[in-house]
Backbone:
């Protein structure tokens, strides 16, 4: 075990960059949980859909990877809405385990549908942004990482603003806290759920386009990123946006700093360790107060 | 007379399993293998059901206990030549300790529902990485039960028959345990905890203790299943016995069969295991992933159209024809939306 | 003789808020004591502290002469102190009989004995005919009775009733009054929280009034209904007859 | 203005309302009284569209509400203050009120309505930035009424607004109801506090196991012997409040 | 929905023309052979190529008249999916042997799957040809029914270090400090164990070892740890997705050292295709290269059928097809015991049906193919060019600038 300063600094930089993306991936999950109290185990697979879409837009149509956001975001929005309508909506009131099983089923379906359609190839693109690096002292950060990082911050802020200050945001929060009461204030709760699910999924469209230039896509890509999203969401406090953002950064840092200082692949145990400790001792997450 | 009545509830399981004991007369070897698979998953799901179905604490991390059982007996056999007949109890003891700690840690701090599910999934996933990095446990490559041909002392047989009877007996015990819980104080306390912890506590139920006990009982039973699994497949690996995938599979059968019912896990396994096997054999290589697609489809279908599982559905059909449900432990999904 | 329940300087602070502050009172064997006060005065919190659902910040609770401060709910229940809930809390997926049996198991180990006890209790609270109805299918009135029955099944010496009359019609309230009086005459002690004055004024031998977590008055119903501090903080201008 | 005609409602196995008909006229306070489980909440929830009648019709000034979705009914001015308040506990008082006034018809006059509500309940203005879960029971009930007012209702339905409140708060809630009527609002009131509610009602219906057993002016119903025996109760405890 | 693929091409007429005795012809008309690879899950892509290689061989064998000694019996392929899971693989072995009654099984790609499934086959006394799965132990358990044609993990490590030793002579690079970077499953771990052993024997210093979980979002930190240790060469063991992340991190951190992979993700055509310039200069080992003599023919056939180049995976599975055909031919029966005997006495010399770059395919008493050489290739201008051993070298090793 060596603690060399350049390695640590590089780890911090890389951790922050990837942490930004983790945050963006997690925000949709936290939104959906916050509103419907549903843990979407198919979340990672939604991201996979976004990545495939972005990939084909780039390779088949030659669209700039960052311009694909204009397509991936609305498409994921509608994918989310579609899946919500046929499968989530009917079981909104069912016990949590049924919902977990249902979304697990959906994740199996999506994953293997991708396998049937696209084969198991691991696909990635080399864009014109690849290879542009910035050096800060000994630390290297790529342009694509920077764009993803700031893109994530922007998306988070935008979403936060919408939820906090607009009527739609208040509807979403009201429906989350008491659906019947919201209905009785003239809020169309089912529509609000639909919207929230759509927005939560659309976040993954943004994430996919930002991620593709320095990542890869395969049918199973959602497994790991989906799991990370859970960790981040718990860390940030389920349903808490800013928490998810901070949580994303923390997990990004944990993964990279853990790799810098821990032997073998034990750094992953660190990630789960944080997850478990938070669930046990601070289930309300890092930012929120404990509720009665 | 009264004695008779008290034990009558055990009659049905005994008869069913006695009949099942004749199955080998009719089954070809490969079907014996399927029968054993069914029983393994039925056994594990029944064990899970005590915590998940009866006490309503949905553990997504039972792979942890299965792994402990599998690794303990296998390691002891390889390293010290200890017979798995003893190793199985060592594994159960370790699982009891793990189950107690997990139960205490989680329930002491009031974790429930989705949070409990997530913490257990994280624990079993973390176990995968710990074991993968643990050289004595074979690391990522896992441990292989040394092949000895037929050696009853080491729980190894070339024929399927002994395996079948061992797991049949284990499953019978598990079902009897579930049946026993159905009409006993501990069983009622499990349900009370599931239905309303605050009220249960106020009525003298030590909810923390009850949940921890349920977790320990469930863990211990699951670990025994793990040992059998290791002996039957003669191999244990971190991902094979620990981790999310196995854990989900364990509870799948209980959920699809019917949560919190005596027969649900068994019914779930009897129906689903062959479907999965056939799907893999028939579709597996025509399109990659097609059989798993089917699997996901079955899951989604069940959740959408039979939220209380197969046994739950059967019961509500029976209820419609005027019979009152006698299996009081079932959970029904609440109905209707807000608007 | 030591009182059945003795509360000394009981305090519970939530964050910065003192929900119960320095509360001292007692309940004697065989009494019915009323506990009233404005919304948020700390009555339910006080119940939670007595029944062991919460741990007090400071102060002590003695029950049957024993210091029971900080005991858990289930321990208190075994000692003979049981509470009902302001919002009824049935076990929805099991029958009324089984709901009550869970309480009966505190004193009875075998299923048979618990079932006999439970049937007896259902009879006492008047819902024996609903024994096989699922908790979720009972009406509010039946649930209120079930709530009392669940408490009774644990065979308590002291039963804490939290707003059992809320939401009932006056006639239904009369039924509950009769039931409590009868149980009291058979020797059971009660501590009752209620906003329905008809219940409080009729049942209580003694009333303790809380405001902002501490006691502002104590006395017989007649005294309380004339107490200016109580009128000002709680009762308002109207007349209440005991 | 509100007409409920011959409405029946069925819970899966159980029929809760059998052909109930009621009328509520502009500017009136109309009470519905009855035992627990008589079907009062069921009736209000049916008018609100949370439940669907198996037969009968509900109209507001001739507009058919029977099949309209619950949130649309609110947008048409039929607003409920639900039993048990049902606030948005983690939103501030202000935000709770804003949600009440956020549908299209209400949005135009939202600022005005807000001033009115704060005028009626100065306490709420004091607690504007506090989250709803930290309010006292009485304040919560005020917020629930205020939130409903934000929808600019033409008819306000209240389900047991005095439930679980201290007597002193109950008195103030009843004065608020009268104040609202004086401001021209129509109120449909469900109360267990029977004497008090009949005293302030222009008209009243007595529901018994899902049917209208008696109707008349508030005073008439209050004077009725049957009502007295069935709902006001025994002489041992004089009626409270 | 049968999973069997019977390929009865033009060859059938051949058989009759050859005039085999009618009795034998009537006895058996087909022999069932099973493939057991991961065709779903993470490694489906690799599993698929194995199956394709095997299919190609079987099609050719059948077209050429099947098993002549058995009256022109056709080979019938029963495909099975291990899902990459050991327990599933064991179930599949059970099914293939008991239900499908196959004569032999060919598999499995992952070692963690090969270990338990060969044991299952051993119990069922069914020959199991390991076309690809490198863990040393597979052929170190005194099994009678397990035969492996691919090299052992140990040999990959050994050849890697052999090349490092040669680098001084080849390009004047005197390798003193070596760093290891590998994924953390048994593939990475067992190969790394070999690497360490041979490095020590060669007197080279291991300055850093980094293991990482294969599913990771970013490997920059891991690679920067390696960079900080400043080795002369980096030995890696990878799967495809992590090899992509490593190459990206290498490029990003501007590392000039040679990266030398042990036949992991880097041999996937996708690796070069997607990374472009980012993949330049990476060395990797291959069990097979189309640049080897005679290999071009197979590669042409394969890419005509499946639209891509063949790698060691496909080639070894292809060889396994000819191996089983050879054994059946000599056994003259589909009896598992007879086939096992025949396999044990295999001696296939270089020739039309022997595509491995070895003089003769023979199994040791442990069932291990005794000589399975490895090539080292370097990615040069987007091509995998053989650079070692000298007799197969198509170019000189380049040091990245
Ligand atoms: N768990 C808790 N966390 C924080 N504050 C609490 C908690 N429980 C109660 N409180 C606060 O303590 C105070 C007393 O509440 P309590 O429920 O005891 O009142 P109460 O007298 O029972 O009122 P009511 O008559 O309305 O039922 C209130 O201000 C309440 O908001
Ligand atoms: N969701 C439901 N499912 C089945 N039955 C119900 C449901 N809700 C109410 N009921 C039944 O319908 C009848 C009328 O109930 P409702 O709530 O309308 O009565 P209420 O007059 O408002 O009584 P309360 O004074 O207790 O509020 C009762 O018998 C009740 O048990
Ligand atoms: Mg209270
Ligand atoms: Mg009601």
Residues:
């Amino acid at each position: 075990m060596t603690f060399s300063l350049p390695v640590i600094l590089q780890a911090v930089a890389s951790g922050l960059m990837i942490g930004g993306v983790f945050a963006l991936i997690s925000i949709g999950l936290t939104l959906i949980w916050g509103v419907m109290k549903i843990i979407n185990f198919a979340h990672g697979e939604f991201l996979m859909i976004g990545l495939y879409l972005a990939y084909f837009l780039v390779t088949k149509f030659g669209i700039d990877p960052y311009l694909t956001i204009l397509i991936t975001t609305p498409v994921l929005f509608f994918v989310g809405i579609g899946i919500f309508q046929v499968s989530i909506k009917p079981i909104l009131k069912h016990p949590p385990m049924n919902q977990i099983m249902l979304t697990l089923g959906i994740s199996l379906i999506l994953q293997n549908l991708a396998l049937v359609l696209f084969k198991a190839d691991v696909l990635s693109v080399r864009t014109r942004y690849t290879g542009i690096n910035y050096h800060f002292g000994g630390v290297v950060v790529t342009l694509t990482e920077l764009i993803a990082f700031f893109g994530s911050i922007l998306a988070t802020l935008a979403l936060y603003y919408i939820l906090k200050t607009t009527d739609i945001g208040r509807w979403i929060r009201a429906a989350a806290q008491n659906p019947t009461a919201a209905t009785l204030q003239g809020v169309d709760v089912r529509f609000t759920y639909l919207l929230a699910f759509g927005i939560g999924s659309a976040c993954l469209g943004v994430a996919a386009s930002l991620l593709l230039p320095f990542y890869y896509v395969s049918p199973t890509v959602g497994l790991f990123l989906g799991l990370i999203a859970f960790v981040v969401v718990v860390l940030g406090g389920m349903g808490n946006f800013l928490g998810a953002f901070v949580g994303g950064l923390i997990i990004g840092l944990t993964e990279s700093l853990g790799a810098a200082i821990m032997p073998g692949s034990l750094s992953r145990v660190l990630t789960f360790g944080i997850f478990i400790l938070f669930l046990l001792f601070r289930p309300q997450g890092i930012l929120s107060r404990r509720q009665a | 007379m009264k004695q008779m009545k008290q034990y009558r509830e055990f009659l049905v399981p005994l008869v069913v399993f006695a009949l099942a004991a004749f199955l080998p007369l009719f089954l070809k070897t490969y079907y014996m293998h399927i029968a054993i698979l069914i029983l393994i998953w039925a056994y594990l799901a029944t064990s899970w059901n005590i915590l998940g179905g009866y006490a309503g604490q949905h553990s997504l991390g039972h792979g942890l206990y299965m792994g402990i059982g599998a690794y303990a007996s296998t390691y002891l056999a390889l390293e010290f030549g200890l017979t798995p007949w003893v190793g199985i109890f060592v594994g159960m003891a370790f699982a009891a300790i793990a189950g107690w700690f997990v139960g205490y840690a989680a329930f002491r701090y009031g974790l429930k529902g989705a949070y409990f599910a997530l913490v257990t999934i994280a624990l079993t996933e973390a176990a995968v990485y710990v074991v993968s990095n643990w050289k004595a446990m074979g690391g990522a490559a896992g441990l292989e039960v040394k092949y000895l041909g037929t050696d009853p002392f080491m729980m190894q047989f070339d024929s399927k028959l002994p395996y079948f009877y061992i797991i049949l007996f284990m499953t019978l015990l598990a079902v009897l345990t579930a049946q026993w819980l159905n009409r006993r104080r501990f069983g009622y306390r499990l349900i009370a905890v599931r239905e309303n912890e605050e009220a249960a506590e106020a009525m003298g139920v030590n909810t923390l203790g009850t949940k921890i006990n349920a977790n320990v009982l469930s863990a211990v039973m699951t670990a025994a299943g793990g040992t059998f699994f290791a002996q039957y497949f003669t191999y244990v690996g971190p991902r094979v016995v620990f981790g999310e995938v196995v854990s989900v599979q364990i509870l799948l059968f209980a959920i699809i069969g019917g949560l919190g019912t005596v027969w649900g896990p068994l019914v779930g396994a009897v129906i689903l295991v062959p479907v999965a096997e056939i799907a893999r054999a028939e579709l597996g290589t025509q399109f990659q992933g097609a059989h798993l697609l089917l699997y996901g489809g079955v899951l989604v279908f069940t959740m959408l159209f039979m939220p209380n599982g197969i046994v739950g559905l059967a019961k509500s059909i029976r209820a419609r024809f005027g019979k009152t449900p006698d299996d009081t432990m079932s959970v029904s999904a609440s109905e209707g939306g807000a608007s | 003789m030591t009182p059945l329940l003795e509360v000394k300087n009981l305090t519970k602070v939530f964050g910065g808020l003192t929900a119960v502050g320095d509360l001292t009172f007692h309940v004697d064997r065989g009494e019915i004591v009323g506990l009233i006060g404005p919304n948020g005065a700390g009555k339910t919190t006080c119940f939670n502290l007595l029944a062991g659902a919460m741990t007090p910040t400071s102060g002590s609770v003695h029950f049957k002469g024993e210091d029971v401060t900080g005991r858990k709910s289930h321990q208190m229940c075994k000692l003979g102190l049981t509470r009902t809930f302001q919002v009824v809390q049935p076990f929805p997926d099991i029958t009324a009989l089984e709901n009550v049996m869970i309480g009966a198991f505190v004193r009875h180990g075998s299923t048979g004995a618990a079932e006999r006890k439970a049937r007896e209790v259902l009879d006492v609270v008047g819902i024996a005919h609903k024994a096989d109805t699922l908790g979720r299918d009972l009406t509010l009135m039946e649930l209120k009775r079930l709530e009392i029955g669940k408490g009774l099944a644990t065979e308590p010496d002291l039963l804490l009733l939290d707003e059992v009359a809320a939401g009932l019609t006056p006639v239904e309230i009369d039924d509950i009054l009769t039931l409590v009086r009868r149980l009291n005459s058979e020797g059971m002690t009660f501590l009752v929280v209620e906003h329905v004055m008809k219940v409080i004024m009729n049942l209580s031998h003694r009333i303790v009034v809380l405001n902002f977590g501490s006691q502002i008055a104590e006395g017989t119903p007649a005294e309380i209904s004339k107490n200016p501090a109580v009128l000002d903080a709680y009762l308002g201008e109207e007349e209440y007859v005991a | 203005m509100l007409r409920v005609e011959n409405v029946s409602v069925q819970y899966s196995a159980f029929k809760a309302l059998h052909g109930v008909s009621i009328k509520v006229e502009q500017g009136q306070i109309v009470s519905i009284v009855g035992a627990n489980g008589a079907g009062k909440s069921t009736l209000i929830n049916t008018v609100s569209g949370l439940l669907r009648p198996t037969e009968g019709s509900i109209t507001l000034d001739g507009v058919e509400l029977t099949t309209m979705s619950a949130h649309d009914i609110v947008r048409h001015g039929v607003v409920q203050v639900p039993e048990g308040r049902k606030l948005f506990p983690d939103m501030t008082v202000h935000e709770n009120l804003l949600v009440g006034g956020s549908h299209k018809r209400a949005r135009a006059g939202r600022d005005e309505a807000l001033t009115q509500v704060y005028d009626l309940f100065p306490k709420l203005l004091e607690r504007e930035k506090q989250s709803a879960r930290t309010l006292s029971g009485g304040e919560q009930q005020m917020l629930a009424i205020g939130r409903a007012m934000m929808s600019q209702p033409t008819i306000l339905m209240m389900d047991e607004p005095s439930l679980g409140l201290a007597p002193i708060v109950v008195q103030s809630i009843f004065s608020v109801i009268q104040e609202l009527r004086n401001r021209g609002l129509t109120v449909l009131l469900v109360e267990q506090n029977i004497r008090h509610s009949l005293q302030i009602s222009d008209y009243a219906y007595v529901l018994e196991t899902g049917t209208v057993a008696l109707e008349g002016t508030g005073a008439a119903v209050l004077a009725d012997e049957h009502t007295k025996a069935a709902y006001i109760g025994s002489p041992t405890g004089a009626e409270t409040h | 929905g049968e999973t069997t693929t019977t390929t009865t091409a033009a060859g059938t007429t051949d058989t009759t023309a050859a005039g085999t005795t009618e009795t034998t012809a009537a006895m058996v008309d087909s022999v069932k052979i099973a493939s057991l690879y991961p065709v779903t899950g993470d490694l489906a892509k690799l599993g698929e190529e194995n199956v394709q290689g095997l299919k190609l061989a079987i099609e050719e064998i059948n077209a050429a008249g099947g098993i002549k000694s058995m009256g022109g019996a056709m080979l019938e392929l029963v495909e099975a999916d291990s899902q990459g899971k050991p327990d599933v693989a064991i179930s599949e072995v059970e099914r293939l042997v008991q239900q499908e009654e196959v004569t032999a099984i060919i598999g499995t790609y992952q070692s963690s799957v090969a270990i338990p499934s060969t044991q299952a086959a051993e119990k069922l006394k069914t020959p199991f040809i390991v076309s690809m799965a490198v863990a040393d132990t597979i052929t170190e358990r005194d099994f009678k029914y397990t035969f492996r044609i691919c090299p052992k993990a140990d040999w990959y490590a050994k050849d890697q270090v052999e090349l490092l030793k040669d680098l001084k002579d080849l390009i004047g690079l005197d390798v003193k400090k070596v760093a290891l970077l590998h994924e953390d499953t048994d593939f990475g771990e067992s190969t790394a164990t070999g690497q360490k052993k041979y490095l020590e024997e060669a007197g080279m210093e291991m300055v850093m070892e980094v293991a990482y979980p294969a599913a990771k979002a970013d490997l920059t930190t891991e690679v920067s740890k390696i960079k900080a240790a400043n080795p002369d060469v980096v030995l890696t063991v990878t799967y495809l997705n992590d090899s992509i992340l490593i190459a990206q991190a290498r490029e990003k951190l501007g590392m000039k050292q040679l990266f030398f992979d042990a036949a992991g993700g880097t041999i996937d055509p996708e690796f070069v295709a997607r990374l472009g310039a980012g993949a330049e200069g990476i060395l990797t080992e291959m069990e097979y290269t189309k640049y080897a003599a005679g290999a071009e023919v197979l590669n042409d056939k394969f890419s005509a059928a499946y639209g891509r180049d063949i790698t060691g995976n496909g080639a070894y599975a292809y060889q396994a097809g000819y191996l089983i055909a050879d054994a059946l031919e000599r056994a003259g029966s589909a009896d598992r015991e007879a086939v096992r005997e025949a396999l044990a006495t295999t001696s296939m010399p270089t020739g039309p049906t022997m595509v491995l770059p070895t003089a003769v395919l023979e199994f040791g008493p442990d069932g291990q193919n005794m000589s399975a050489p490895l090539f080292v290739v370097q990615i040069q201008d987007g091509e995998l060019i053989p650079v070692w051993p000298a007799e197969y070298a198509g170019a000189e090793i380049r040091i990245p600038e």
